[in-house]
Each structure stands twice: as C-alpha cells, then as structure tokens.
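Our working data are protein records whose layout never changes between entries. Getting from the letters to the tokens is the skill we practise here. To make this concrete, we reproduce a full record directly below:
***
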Amino acid sequence: MNNVSGRVRTRLVVVVTTITIAASLTVVPTRARAVESVAEQRVQGIGGQQPGLAYERPAALNQDLGAMQAAGMTWVRADFFWSSIQSRGPGSWYWGPTDAFVKAAKAHHLHVVGMLAYAPRWARSGPDEHDPPKNPNDYANFARAAARRYAPMGVHTWEIWNEPNLAVFWAPRADPVAYAALLRRAYPAIKSADRNATVISGGLAPARDRGNDLSPMSFIVALYYHGAKGNFDGLGLHPYSYPYAPMKKASWNVFYNTPTVHKLMADVGDGNKKIWGTEIGYPTGTSSKAVSEQTQANDLVAAITAWQKWSFTGPMFIFQLRDSSTKKSDLVDNMGILRWSGQAKPAYNAIRNKLR
C-alpha cells in the first residue's frame, strides 16, 4: 500500500503528457451510455448543506431547510451515514433520521444529493472512522438499499464518498485504485435499484501530490487509468480557493482550473458529463485563512456567477449554511453564511439577491 501513490504518480506523468489514456479505457456498453444520457442533461442550481443535517432534530432541520429555500436554493446535500444506518451489521438497517430528512427536504421543494459514507466498524478495513470498506460489495449493498428506498420518495442523486483524495477521509492514504474499485461496485448497484439515478464521484478537495494526499487532477487521471470510466454520471469537485477569490489565476486553484478538469474528461470521451461542485465556501472568523464577511459574500457571488457560465458544470453547493460554533479561530466552524445564532451574514443576503 505504501508504494501505490508513488506508482500512480509515475504513471500520471506519462499518461497526461502523451494523452494515451483514452486508448486504455474500457468501452462502456451501449445500455450504460443510454442511461448516462439522462444524467448528462444540463442540470444546474445552487444548493446548501450543514454538517449532520439529516440527523438534526425536527425544529432545527426545518429551520435550516427553510433558510436554504428562502435564499433561493433548489438543492441540498446531506450525509447518509452508513456507519449509522448499518451500525449493527450487514443485516441491520436504521433509516429513521434519513427518512425524516428526505420528507422534510421534499416539503421545502429541495432536490437531494445523498452523500454515502462512512464505513461502520464491522465493514472497515482499519481502526479509523474514515478507513474505506474492506469489501466494496458491502458498500455497494448499502448504496443499492439507499437508492431502492429513496427513489420512490424522489431522491435520485447519490455521491460516492467524500474527498477520497485526502488521507483524512480515505485513511490511511488516498488510493485511487481502491476508490475506482468502489465506484465499479457502487454504480451498477445503484442503477439496479434506480435506473434513472445520477451517480456523482466523491467530491475531490484541493491538495498537492504530497504525503498521503493526491491532487484532484492526479486522482482523476488515475481513476480513468484504473477503469472508473462508465461508473459515474458526474464528477464531484470541491473547488475551494479561500482565502483568495475563485478566479485567481494560479496552478493550485481548483476553481480556476475547473475547465482544465473538463478538458481531461473530454479527452477521454467524458465531455458530456458535468462537473458537480459538491462543496465550496469561504471561512470568516480569525483563522489565518479567513476572509472578512463582506469578502465572503463577494467571493461566493463571484463563484456562482462563474460556475453557472460554464456549459460543463452541474449544481454547486455552499458549505455551509450555518456556523458550527462560536469559536472564531476554527476555520471550518466559521464557513457558514449564517452565524451560529442564525443571524444572516452579508453572504446570505447576497446569495438570496443573486438567486432570486
């Protein structure tokens, strides 16, 4: 396992510079392409999310969903925690919180993206809560069950894991080979339960090819090299650029380089697939990478404007709706467009004005 990332990086250089990856890809059957064509249609919109949203108490849940709806958002992304739904073993199922969430989202006229993760103890390949499953078929069974249960309730969009290019979410190191294998199991499982489902690959976070992480571009090339083509309908990306503006010209800026990602997809025959921005945000507060509240508003509006001008993008999701605490020094806790109290920051009103 320690040598996987090194071998992948070596291959990536060759693949990218020679553009020969397309020749090595498995041809997708005609039937699969017909199903994909539905998901490849132009779908846009702005969504919201809040950590643990599907597991909130009813009053808080409806308050958060109502705030998203009032801002003009039409989508919501939420964690469907495998570790909760099947905590007691492969034959156990606990759908109570996600049932309530889906019903509430529907009542607020929000389309749902269900992010399917993370492995329960019995299914993990290691001790970390973000260790991948030791058997991808266990995850596929879970994904199939979720799609089967929620398709009749209007949920047809699923994201396969979260930020698998980071060791913090795919422990102990990013492994595109293993993740590609997970996609190859989960995709047909979901389609068998809901042939009209849209399956999004796990949103990739900004990172460098360093330590146990892989950059989004390196991870995507490796996915294609290892047979992921034909096993997702849209590519998930987390185009964070904070503390800089979204269109700052820089090699590290995932947002600015989104067209480069799409070019790679087009080069391998996936140009009709959309890139879904399943997380984007700008932290306020006092951390070293925080921005002012007005800058947060300006950058989010600029991101929405740029994202919606591109023809190859799908929905984009603001991370997050509400600050998670009052601790101003915590970067992630202060990414809300509402304060912890629920009071609007300038970004909330700016987004509402933009969308409505």
